[in-house]
Task: structure prediction
Amino acid sequence: MTVITDTLPTHPDRVTRETAVDFIIELFRHIGDRDYIGEAVSQREHGIQCAVMADQLENRDSLTAAALLHDIGHFLHAYEEDCAEAGIDSRHEDCGADFLARFFPPEVSEPVRLHVDAKRYLCAVEPSYFDRLSPASIRSLELQGGPLQGAELERFAANPHLADAVILRRCDEGAKVPDLQTPPVEFYRPILERLLTA
Result:
């Protein structure tokens, strides 16, 4: 197993409030060029495209930050990059949200935690949504448990962060455009710094 955290500029456990934004920016610079497995964009391109879309839709710092950082768990987990192709669900949403919750309010961390279940939710309540999924997203949906059903669906529908998680999920699916011109990740530094919790 390749431990992803061995390639980071510093270990995530050593990040503090004072170094969190620098660490995040360096993650995007340091390993953001990795392929977003199964898609035609890099991890950096995907995150920034998602942030651009969220900002255009809602113009709320917390949702823009959540969109930018929704896949940060892919940079932090201890699985090989192509683990989904090997049938392993890395639970990157929890890894990323747990890290972000140390520094940012729930309005940032919880949509990140919920963005996978938001895909499962949309596939359950909006059947045409499945048709918009890329092949890689369909493959990961199977690993993640398929469309939500029963009590799981009811719990998710009652979550106070449902609306933002669904918006984030829609941005996630749309943020896979090759060669799209976007701002550099540094553009989002002021937003991240404003959102840091005391």
